[in-house]
Amino acid sequence: MAPGCSVLFFLLATSSLFSSPADAGGFVGVNYGRVANNLPSPAKVVELLKANAVTEVKLYDAEPTVLSALSGSGIGVVVALPNEVLVSAASRPGFALAWVKKNVAAWHPATQIRAVAVGNEVFASAAAKTLTPALVPAMQNVHKALQQLGLDADVKVSSPLALTALQSSYPSSAGAFRADLAGSVMRPMLELLHSSGSYLMVNAYPFFAYAANSDVISLDYALFRPNAGVVDAGNGLRYYSLLDAQLDAVFAATKALGYGDIRLVVSETGWPSKGDSDEKGAGPDNAAAYNGNLARRVLSGNARTPARPDADVDVYLFALFNENQKPGPTSERNYGLFYPNEEKVYDVEFQLQGGATKRDQEAGSARTARSPRAVVPPAGSGSSSGNGGQVSASSTGGATWCVADAKVGKERLQAALDYACGEGGADCAPIQAGAACYDPNTVEAHASFAFNSYYQKKRRVVGTCDFEGAAYVVTQPPSFGKCEFPTGY
């Protein structure tokens, strides 16, 4: 990873939320690095991945023992052609073909190789001057080798970029690649990705920006928590998330070169559970919040960015293990989701389970009870909404529900909605496009469903239907279209 660009987004510092519900989510995979001398065997690692519902993994090489262990597992795999052989792959098509035969064709499809990551953060590497001109030729030769072997439809070629590839990033709408890269490297790379049906890999770390600028960047903004947001003066879009701002800066850069339809995959992102004294924000609670909130928003289809609301985002969290031989500050050795003994550093869900994680269950009541305001209107009075929803007057035998208060405005409702569907662990699958409760497609209706899900999961404890004043309790079942609001879980 490259900690560069830590200041590129500090002017966006306010705090973070999520986008509106989408019809489908992306996937959450994990980076399996092995810069350590105390890790489990590859066979045990595969069992660990399967036990935790991890369906996608990204490697930093093409180690045979790892590929063998992954064979037949059903786990999608990204293999890597390392920087060390990039020049050989660029200058010798025969080398690229031999590499693909040995490291892809010999294993696929039993080992479900999805892509080849050609190099890693080449522009930020110590050998950037040598490697940068070799990157696209190497990618082209690897792609041609895949074509020769009839694998190009299944296996894509890309290359993970650090955010230091950007020359400008604030506001996000002004995102642009560095002048020395834009025409000579990025344009032909994007053309290759476009013509081959591939995607651009981006390594993005809000942690770096926060650690370097914690005096001006809100921690909530970095951790996908509710906040006021900030408006991009260039396009009028409001941002609630530092990661969204980073990704939209990359989207703007690709669009400026004529490739605005290129899909992005976050090939690395994460938050360290431990750091040095000057690494502000490093710690297990923040790491759990960042990775957990990100995973939930991706899986629920809420990771689409303001500038690309039509594009789901796939994410590979960094990293599977704490790696004890990585050089650099303490944080570098503490990005893992698991300790080498396979115990969790903290909980992260890799699939939507229809409920909150154990961590959410333990912490949720304390979080939402900060300002209890459970208001129960008189039975039979009903409650009209501003968007066509209402509370029916039917008898409920003492049951209660939680609904949104439209009077607080859409922005506050959206903030609370995103919290409920993210860190709050509400079941928001029914309000995704095409699902039973998507219509009416209004913030009030969606927020009401999410608030009620959260409230019911918390067993209707006083204070769990508040959302900082954006919700209240009712004694009749809410009515939004044909959606049925559950009571009790």
UniProtKB/TrEMBL annotation:
Principal place of residence: membrane
Name by which UniProt lists this protein: glucan endo-1,3-beta-D-glucosidase
Record flagged with keyword Calcium: no
Protein species of origin: Colocasia esculenta
EC number: 3.2.1.39
Gene Ontology cellular-component annotations: plasma membrane; plasmodesma; side of membrane
UniProt keyword Membrane, yes or no: yes
Lineage: Eukaryota, Viridiplantae, Streptophyta, Embryophyta, Tracheophyta
Substrates-to-products reaction catalysed: Hydrolysis of (1->3)-beta-D-glucosidic linkages in (1->3)-beta-D-glucans
Family per similarity comment: Belongs to the glycosyl hydrolase 17 family.
Enzyme's top EC category: hydrolase
Topology term for the membrane: Lipid-anchor; GPI-anchor
Subcellular location as annotated: Cell membrane
Domain of life, per lineage: Eukaryota
Any one GO biological process: carbohydrate metabolic process
Keywords recorded for this protein, A-Z: Cell membrane, Disulfide bond, Glycoprotein, Glycosidase, GPI-anchor, Hydrolase, Lipoprotein, Membrane, Plant defense, Signal
Signal peptide span: 1-24
Region (Disordered): 356-392
Entry GO MF terms: glucan endo-1,3-beta-D-glucosidase activity
Domain X8: 400-485
